[in-house]
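User: Run a structure prediction on this.
Assistant: Running it now.
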Amino acid sequence: MLIGAHVRDDDPVGAAAELGADVVQFFLSDPQGWKKPPTHPMAERLRTGDVTVVVHSPYVVNIASPNNRIRIPSRKLVVQHAIAAAEVGAIGLVVHGGHVTQADDPAVGFENWRKFLSRQQDDGGFAVPILIENTAGGERAMARRFDALARLWDAVGEFDVGFCLDTCHAFAAGEDLGDVVDRAKSITGRIDLVHLNNSRDEFGSARDRHANIEGGTIAPDQLAAVAAAAGAPVVLETPTEGQAADIAFLRERLGR
């Protein structure tokens, strides 16, 4: 099992060495911006190196949005980031499920995802796999509660899209972590990546505030159990100062 963390984007190779990480995740551009990602200065080292790479798309991306001024730029940005992710040898591009507004039927958001993936498939597909991530809050979110996730996968499952399971997000959404892996796999058929994060807030809070493995409201051994059951690469998006300890804890619990 690969274990690593979300790291600074300026020197992911150095960050991996400092943490002893098998896998690193990072942004290729401003996570709150709409600009096309530039070529990463360490692209060749990342592409040819021993560390597994994951890229996270900007937070502004919302493929589900009924608003053309958000949805169309989001589509463009995902395609651009997938190309840039391939340049650094990434195994996938993480994209949040997105949401529609309170005035919209969620069915519109599911259909917008289907249209995007269908059109891109007709254009030759993506440069790297797209990994849709479950999210923590929002009543009209596409991938917050697992009943919505099931509707989303009904719309997109035929396109071989991947899934990223975030433990903090699932906990905040009110999803029981005891059987979360089995339930996620029963819907998506797969888990390609785990964002293994503890939560600063209580179960069902709808708040996306990450904590270190031994510093939150989720039992650390429960997080380790999720990682073991998922059998996928693990990326810690926990506070930086505790990431080395988080990795050590997981390796000890998982026999890595």
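Residues 24 and 53 are 5 Å apart (CA to CA).
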